[in-house]
Amino acid sequence: MQFLSILLLLAANVEAHYHFQSIGSDSSTGRPPKNRQDNGPVTSITSPDMRCNQLGTAQNTFKVAAGGSMPVYYNQGPWHQGPYQVYMAKVPAGSTVQTWDGAGEVWFKVYMGGNYTGGCKYTGGNYCFVDTWPNPLTVTLPTALPAGDYLVRAEHLAMHIANQPQFYIGCGQVTITEGGNGAPGPLVAFPGAYQQGDKAIWNNFNYPKPQSYTPPGPPVWTG
What CDD domains does this protein map onto (predicted)? Predict the structure, then answer.
């Protein structure tokens, strides 16, 4: 009986895992994450997998005008409490979106979600993060976003286990048309944007409940 219970627990954990799989409904715009078979999370903030899961590139890019809507799809779930964020990085001159890996301080945040109501009680699984997860997650891009090719990095930080953060990450390729003249920032690197001991990552949402919460990383760039 104990063995059966362990198997059921393992199965439940696998089912509760997920990843972002594409920008737009065409899966060929998404860079397949290394964890695509088991949907497992990245648990080390110093791992290169914090960038784009480091497994290949995409065949195509999703095209959208600056100021338009960018739909980010995930394969299932997500099931856990925690904030979700979307970053972008412009492909530099001399590189292509199919070959560039997004290394260095090149990422800026364009979306942050996960409404937290401080001090609330457990209400059936969301642990006070009251936003629901639509699929796709729709990101409205700044009108000042310059034209060009970008990598998109979507992230969900699951905080259902006290002080054991889990990052569910996926990347995709996008081409911005009709761009503006903005200067996106602040720019951060992955790994590097998040620090050990940051209370936005290492926190106990089970007890006692924090009265407030701000997700990790820089502020959202709005243009």
Answer: LPMO_AA9
